[in-house]
Each structure stands twice: as structure tokens, then as C-alpha cells.
Amino acid sequence: MRYSHFPILDIATICAHLGVQQAVISPGSRNAPLTIAFVRHPKIQCYSISDERAAAFIALGMAQQSGKPVALVCTSGSAGLNYAPAVAEAYFSQVPLLLLTADRPPEWVNQADGQTIHQRNMYGQHCKAAYEIPADYIHPDALWAIRRTMCEAIHTSTAYPAGPVHINMPFREPFYPKPEDDLTFSPNLRLFEEQRGQMQLPEDIWHSIIEKVSKTPKILLVAGQNRYEPSLVAAIEQLPFALLGDIFANIHTARNNVFRYEIGLQQPIWHSPDLLITFGQSVLSKVLKNRLRQYPPLEHWHIQEAGHVPDVFQSLTRIIRTSPVLFFQTLSQKWKDRPTTDYWLPFPLFDAARSDRRLAQLQATAPLSEPLAVYRLMQALPQRATLHLANSMPVRYAQAIGLRHTQTVEVFCNRGTSGIDGCVSTAVGHALASPNKLHILLVGDVAFLYDRNALWHNYSLPNLRIVVLNNGGGGIFRMIDGPRNLAETDEYFVTQQRLSARSAAEEAGFAYLYANTKEQVEAVLPKFFGNEGVPILLEITTQQADNEQAWRFLQSPS
User: Which of 255, 370, 423, 435 has the most CB atoms around its CB within 10 Å?
Assistant: First the structure.
């Protein structure tokens, strides 16, 4: 006997054929047809994550790491709403996700039936596209519509810029197959594939680019968030232009990358570039954004294949529709016979080692602080490791300390929406997707506790290391001027808390390490990186006053 939801089995086959290799499933009854389809398909690896919010960020991490779309499967009702934070992050970070939400049949919406909400287009503008498949499969056109919709949805999610796509799926009862039902996957589905090529610029455009660049004395490159691409770095470092990039731009190994460039920005002297060339996604440095907005370049080019281009520096004059890799490879090739000169800087030469001396002074004279702990952690990072940074202070500490040209470390941070809500889950997704890489997450106590359900599952994470900076609350609100001196700061902004990460670590099967002095940090770091095959959580506790004092000392211009 044929299974009543037999067309849903084909959805798993279509996903596997078009590059979906992983599915993250949250338990439920209405989504049983989808769960059965994915779990029984031999070419899709499935993970069961009970908390839908954590599940969505874990899938986000998997898709970030692999570059391939990951399917998310949940039941009807509010379950899918819990995907929303990760959906917004995926949209702005350009990460391909397939959101497969089970639903009641349309006639039962708004009829006080259980687990029923308005699910059509429930992610609004935070999805590249939203679809709904038929609830009934009697007519042959319904089968065609399901298969066509799935093909279109997957291709849409992966087309540049990638992003999340929602497919709402109303299912009628019964959901579960009977023992005698045929659960065979269709062998010969008619699918359509999509072939893409690189966007080559015509020669007349290249002629205008070279002519402009060759006659412009003050050129500055600024890199936004980007994956580490050796070919991109190799092309950019052939050019005689200064390169500014945040830690998650992953261009720190380029020879013309300006190490700790924010120290240079602290100087009062600033010379606007004649030509600013940008690529990548978001930029962290508020000082850089303010300088370029206040003193705009004469021209600003942004390199991006397709999609919306934000005018973050309020100076955009030209969008060049090609990939940054192809653009800089071609530019360096056409530039190779020209004389090389020292690159121009918008600020005077500065002493990048100043931070090292100040940190050494803190190490010698001050109690343990978070800047010191992060400094030692980043010094000890193994080559070819992956560093994950939570938002708020961890990413700012890491930005100020920086990675050196010799450190082959790739950095990730959820800067699409810059929230703290899924940073642990995202790192877990990366670790699951690439078990042969070592992943290190640097996270604050509030962000860790907020997302501790990231560790609530049955999957081993021997390649994951977590450092929790526990200062008893949201320490960033003592670092910024607005709330620092308010009477309400401690209770309503810092939100002081007394919890430790120990119980969460032990419940999840992590080895637990602890440090609250400089000497203890030095003692535990070899254990933290040396114990292979075991997930480890290191909790470092500090006092907020010590952190504030150390951070201001590190950031002071003189």
C-alpha cells in the first residue's frame, strides 16, 4: 500500500540531488512525514535538536561552514517562530537555509485548532522567498508543483547572495505510515538544475577602472566580513594599496593588511582617500565608519556580484558587479608591469606594538582582566583552527588584539544582526559540520547562558572548545558612555547574575576548566588546547571594574 504522504518522500530526494547533505529536525507530530523522509534517506545526515531556536542557529553554523544549504524541519504552530532570530541572521549574513515548517491544512487556520497560527510568509522580508506546497496530492499537477517548488526554493537559497527560503507544508492526518505502507523513494524524478557562471567585466569597463586607479594617488581598500579565501588574499597583496579589515574579514594574512589599524584611527590626523574600494559584508569598527562618513572619499566603489548594496559610509559612487576574487585577480594581473610604490595610509604611521606593551604592563601590575585573558588565548591559538566570536565585548576584545600575518586562523561572528542569541549554537553547527577542524568559541556569560540549549542534544563535540568570560552580567554596559553612570545600570542594563557555566558544561559532557587569576590562566591553557578528543569548556571569572579599567587603558590613545 502506498504511504499517504508519498510525495513528501521525494522532497528528501530532491534535496539530496541538489546539494542538501544535512537536516536539523526538531521533534513533533505534524512534521512526521518530513522527518521520516529525511531520516530514511541514505544521503542526508540528520540531527535531532529539541529547541527550535538552537536548532536554527546550529543549522546556520553548518551552512556557514559547508557553504551548502541545510534543511530545517519543525512542527506547526509557534515552533517555526522560534526559527526567526536565526532566519534574520541568515538573511543578513547571506547563509542558505531551507525552512520546512509543517502546518495545518489551510481551512483549519484561525479555527481554534491546536498548534495553529498564520504560517504563510511568517518570516516576512527576512526570507529571500516563501512558498507553500499543496495540502492534497490527488491531481498529478500537485506532484509536479511540489517537485518544482522544491527545486526553485533550493536554487533560490543558494543563488548569490545566498539566504533563507521558507517552504510551508500543510499536512493532513494520518501522518505516520502503517507497517504495510510502501516507503520507497522515487528513482527517476524529473528535476531542473541551475548553472551559474562568473560575471566577467567587459574590456571597456576594465580600461576605465585601470585608467582611474593608475591616476589616483590615495587609494584605500576596506574589507567587510568574509570567509577566508587564499586566492583573494594572494591577489590583494600584489597591489600597492593599504588594506583595512576587521578580524572577521579574514584578510589578516595579506602583507598589505594594516595590523591593529584602529590604533591609527585614534590619531587626530586623517586624510580622506581619493578612492575607497570596499568588498565583503558588515564592518565592525565604529570609528572607521564615523571617519569615512565625516570625511568621505572622492569616490567609493563597492565590489559585489549581485544583490542589495548598503551605502554604509554614505559615499557610494559605483557598484562593480563581479566577485571580489575575480576583480582583484584581474586588477593585480593588469597592474603587474607597473612600478610598485609604498602604499598610502589615511593616518600617520603608528606603533602597532603599543598594545603588546600595554598588555605586558597589565600582566605585570594588574589583576586578571578579560582583555588579558583574550590576549593569551589568541596568542595560543593553533594554526588552522577556527575562532568563533560572540557579539558584545568578545568580538571587540579580539578586534583590538588582532590576528598576526602568520596566524592561519579563520574567524566567524554573527554580524548579520549582531545579536548574542545564537552564538553558541552557531559554533556547535560549525563543529558538527567540520569534525576534522578545531573550533574555539569565545563568549560572554550572558550570551552563553542565553544559548545554553545549544548543548542540549546527544551529539559528541570533541573538536569544540568554549571559553566563557564570566564577569557576572552584561559588562559592555559599563564600557559604553550612555548607561555607564545611570542609577538603573546594574539591574536593567548589566543585569547582574550569579550563575556559573560549570553545570551546563558537565551536563553536556564537557570537561570543565576554571581560572580566576593570571597564573591559573597560564596553567589551564595547555590543558585547554592539548586534550584532544574531549570537548572542553574553560570558564574565566573576572571583576567588571578590572575589565573596565584594563579596556580603557588598552584603548587610550596616549
Answer: 423
Phi, psi of 345 (to 5 degrees): -120, 145
Q: Is the pTM of this model over 0.70?
A: yes
Where residue 543 falls (left for φ over 0; alpha for ψ -120 to 50; beta otherwise) is beta
Predicted pLDDT at 117 = 78
The label of the residue with cell 558612555 reads 481
Q: Which three cell numbers stand for residue 268?
A: 587626530
C-alpha span between 122 and 554 (Å, rounded): 45
Rounded mean pLDDT of the chain?
92
Q: What is the DSSP letter of 89?
A: H
On whether the CB atoms of residues 367 and 547 are closer than 8 A, the answer is no
285, 246 in Cβ contact below 8 A?
Answer: yes
Task: State how far the Cα of 99 lies from the Cα of 367, in Å rounded to an integer.
Answer: 48
Regions of the chain short of the pLDDT cut 50? none
Report CA 122 to chain centroid distance, whole Å.
22
CA distance 246 to 226: 10
Cα distances from 404 to residues 94, 148, 222, 230, 353, in angstroms, run 27, 48, 18, 16, 11
Determine the length of the chain: 558
C-alpha cell of 393? 565585548
Please report the pLDDT score of residue 334 as a whole number.
87
Count CB-CB contacts under 10 A for residue 35.
25
Q: pLDDT per residue over 377-426, tens digit each?
A: 999 999 999 999 999 999 999 999 999 999 999 999 999 999 999 999 99
Residue with cell string 509536479: 144
For residue 399, what is its C-alpha cell?
578586534
Torsion of CA 237, 240, 245, 247, to 10 degrees: 40
Reduce the secondary structure of 288-341 to three states and give it as a string. Answer: HHHHHHHCCCCEEEEECCCCCCCCCCCCCCEEECCCHHHHHHHHHHHHCCCCCC
C-alpha cell of 222? 576596506
Total H helices, total E strands in the chain: 20, 17
Nine-digit cell string for 311: 551605502
Say if residue 161 is preceded by a cis peptide, omega within 30 of 0.
yes
Please state the separation of Cα 199 from the chain's center in Å: 25
Query: Where do the domains of the chain lie, and which CATH numbers do they carry?
Result: 6-170 (3.40.50.970), 203-335 (3.40.50.1220), 354-555 (3.40.50.970)
Q: How far apart (Å, rounded) are the C-alpha atoms in residues 441 and 464?
A: 8
pLDDT the model gives residue 492: 52
What is the end-to-end Cα distance of the chain in Å, rounded?
80
DSSP β-bridge partners for residue 512: 537
DSSP 29: S
Q: Give the C-alpha separation, 537 to 204, whole Å.
A: 56
Instruction: Give which of 323, 221, 223 is closest to 281, Cα–Cα.
Output: 223
Note the pLDDT of residue 190: 80
3 state SS of 378: helix
Closest CA to 234 of 300, 331, 302, 352: 331
CA distance 398 to 377: 10
- CA dist 60 and 162 (Å) reads 12
SS3 433: helix
Tell me if residue 477 falls in helix, strand or coil: helix
